Predict the 3D structure of the following.
Amino acid sequence: VQLVESGGGLVQPGGSLRLSCAASGFTFSWYGMSWYRQTPGKARELVATISSAGGSTKYADSVKGRFTISRDNAKNTVYLQMNVLKPEDTAVYYCYSEGIYLWGQGTQVTVSS
């Protein structure tokens, strides 16, 4: 049972990245999924959530209109498309499976010129 994130990296302000989170070992399509982020010394912050079938999404105010969460249940994968990135988006991003309380290992996103 695991979640494995990928897609992080260094990007300039205004750029884009797409994070992926591949799930295995459980019935992915049964559960809502979320993306969180964390910077040193701060609590983990909810960024976006998507329902099990993908029909409902919610976003933190700080990312609304810039980030899009989506999922492909056939591929057991959830995505976070991040556009118009800002330096304050710099963080380790984690995916999380609701219901089974499972975290991925995280992927670093750094927005800097």
Residues 16 and 83 are 4 Å apart (CA to CA). The chain has a mean pLDDT of 97. The first strand starts at residue 2 and ends at 6. The chain has no helices and eleven strands.
